[in-house]
Amino acid sequence: MNVDDLVVIDFHIHAEEPCCSGRDDGYSEFQAGMAAYFKNPAGADGMLPSVQQSAAYFRERKIGAVIFPVDAERETGFRRYSNEEVATICAENDDILIPFASIDPAKGKLGAREARRLVREFGVRGFKFHPTMQGFYPNDRMAYPLYEAIAEEGAAMLFHTGQTGVGSGMKGGMGMRLKYSNPVHIGDVAIDFPDTPIVMAHPSFPWTEEGLMVAQHKPNVYIDMSGWSPKYFPEIFVRYANTLLKKKMLFGSDWPAITPDRWLADFERADFRDEVRPLILKENARKLLGL
Ligand SMILES: [Zn+2]
Asked: Cα–chain-centroid distance for residue 147?
């Protein structure tokens, strides 16, 4: 990957579709709920982009992108998209895609072994967690065998935080418990793994201030600004991005729910300082990933 050729780095894009098989029953309804939440027409008709299509889309725009599936088999019943397959397609598109993987921490030692293999054999650079979709608090000891493997292999961790489109408006919220996604619990993980880069995804609504607090206090904690248009960022979030956290904030879209085109256009009009924009759009990500 030649980072100088990239215009920006998007730290948060999704590999959504299950591999080599049709969708599980209920999966289309789940995606339709997501599409309604994000007002994203692409998701409503079951035509989400494949990883290859995403690579082509981002290449056209010279945008590097961190991409991951989400392993929430246990909590949702939907088969996961194979980490190996995502990483293999990333390797074929390594001018654009940066592979992250996802393992449900409830897989314990089996998951820890998978993580080591993914880093060593597939060049995976980090792991995505979704506490609400995976049904756990980030500081639950159950997750520690996996965290230890990730930390020892030198990979990063990325946690969903705050409100989610997953299960939004569905009966019983599809069983998704929002409480797990309070970012304050990630502070404990940052204490136990102080040398591991930890990214908190989204503005953590309605716990935005808790998220800012953790990122300010722990040197290894970052925030990716995905999942929300910059038009709707809380004022305090923008203020921290412009000042105390200017070296901690990362551009992320949440593709395919939000396109980088829309995010970047709204960012252009939002109240960010000129000297901070290049940090958010590329330099902070470059430093975090050592690119
Ligand atoms: Zn996301």
From this structure: 16
